[in-house]
Amino acid sequence: MIPLSILDLAVVTEGSTAKEAIQNSRTLAQQADTMGYNRFWMAEHHNMENIASSATSLLLGHIADATKNIRVGSGGIMLPNHSPLIIAEQFGTLATIYPGRVDLGLGRAPGTDPLTANAIRPDRMQQVQEFPESVQQIQKYLSKDNSSSKVRAFPGEGTEVPIWILGSSTDSAFLAAELGLPYVFASHFAPHQLMPALKIYRERFKPSAQLDQPYFMPCVNVIMADTDEEAQFLSTSMLQMFLGVVTGDRSPMKAPVDSMDGIWNDHTKYAVTQMLACSFIGSAETVHDQMQHFIQETEANELMVSTYIFDHSQRIKSYQLLYDMMAAVPS
To answer: Is residue 44 part of a domain?
Structure first.
């Protein structure tokens, strides 16, 4: 079966706390490890009341400590917010404690609003322009070939932590191809440039020391339940969450509702629907064919899944249903 991985944001639900969200992420990672998922990644976001994954590298250590086999990584670290050396040290430390299990996904978006981005790093736009060079600098810090440099990452040097390029546009595809790195596309919220970016990446890919041929992992939303009706009901929490993205409401994720009528209007409904075009919602019977078509169309090497469900037990169940469904598909 195609490898399956998880993207988690430590989403805070209405009536819960950030501590509970982090504990739920840890529990989910443990369950995913047992199920057979390949990776468990967390993403950097800031100034969002509904997301508790701002200190991403700290949370990844918390996750790695609770699991045994599953790879842990960033999906991603927003590199212009940080010094390349500090990120190399942080992920080099993780790789030293948990060897062979750490991934470093790098993106150039702020992961927040403009005001907060400026508070994080006033010279951020300059750092955005230097993103390709910063990626290569981290590669150097994590390489054993950096031993003669005057600036070195301890721990980190020689760990060769695998680096991934994250993107939601064609710009990232050019970079991933030029550097010969694996590529992750954020089709779970920005699906429209998926196929053009994928075409660029595959056609322009240059082999590197890390990777000899293209490796592509799109991220999609999946919500599964025993019946289509139940899955559609559960999905209304995700719809309300993405409505908040459209309207600027970052309050904790709301409980599911019987109908979105009266919650969104035609304009916001259209915006949310466009963002969630790469979403698979329903029972195994419904999701199966849609998922297979998507995998065949993209020729994905691996699939990363994000599941936004209000009830934690239902979220774990959705991931189990997905894994069982995919495991039953003839190779």
So the answer is: yes
